[in-house]
Amino acid sequence: MSAPVNTLKKQLAEGKTLFGCWVGMAEPYIAEITATAGFDWLLIDAEHAPNDLRSILPQLQIIEASSSLPIVRLPDDDSTKIKQVLDIGAQSLLIPMIESAEQAKTALRATRYPPEGFRGVGSALARASRFNATPNYLTTANDEICLILQVESRAGLNALDEIMSVEGIDGVFIGPSDLAADFGYPGQPGAPEVKQAVMDAIIRIRQAGLTAGVLSTDPTYIEACRTAGANFIGVGIDVTLYAGAIRGLAKHYSQ
């Protein structure tokens, strides 16, 4: 028995365009509701949402049981966090704020068992190996990890070619909001200079044969990214969807 086939990795490698939603409520019950919506993938956010290892686990279990494919965004590229979330069963990771090939290489190696990397061999304790019920886990796990690196600064854009040259990464995700702030346009991801940089990066990523990811809640922006070649596209955030709906309802009846 081998490590489970990573369907997200497989479909992205085939060039399929997959649409997803951010899961930031840090609550399994909400994750379960979101998992009934029918998105291609759902991202459990541990960077800007109050998630930790113990709250990520039940959400991961819930999403795995749905038709949506799970991915986890960690708060940073800390190798210990990467290894821990892999051990609880995550196979697809988004790592934020990558600005160099060296960062990319270290993040990649943290997801791989030796000799390709330095992931700790503790699979007997890990949910990832079904608690040692997967006899070939150690020799097959590396091939089923999907690693997407997030570039969201001018420094990252300047190093994009070097980052993309790191063999083994599956894709690069461009973060328009952080990029806009770094360009001097906080809160304006649609600023012409920022938007042009995003589109140019997406084109370059796809030309390099990698998955190109992006997040936007603006339909026009989403379509522009898709036209540029983005194929891992976040189109919503559960927190803002809930906040908008509940405030709209309250406003309607409080007038």
Q: What's the short version?
A:
The chain is an alpha/beta fold and 255 residues long. The chain is built from twelve helices and eight strands. The protein has a single domain, classed as Phosphoenolpyruvate-binding domains (TIM Barrel, Alpha-Beta Barrel).
Q: What topology, given as strand order, has the largest sheet?
A: 1-2-3-4-5-6-7-8
Q: Which fold name is given in CATH as the topology?
A: TIM Barrel
Distance between the termini: 61 Å
Structure class: alpha/beta
CATH homologous superfamily annotation: Phosphoenolpyruvate-binding domains
| CATH class designation | Alpha Beta
Overview of this structure, please?
- The protein has an eight-stranded parallel beta barrel with strand order 1-2-3-4-5-6-7-8, surrounded by seven helices.
- By secondary structure, it is α/β, with parallel strands linked by helices.
- It has a single domain (7-254), classed as Phosphoenolpyruvate-binding domains (TIM Barrel, Alpha-Beta Barrel).
- Strand 7, helix 11 (219-228) and strand 8 (232-237) form a beta-alpha-beta unit.
- It is globular.
- It has twelve helices and eight strands.
- It is 43% helix and 16% strand.
- Helix 2 (28-34) packs parallel to helix 3.
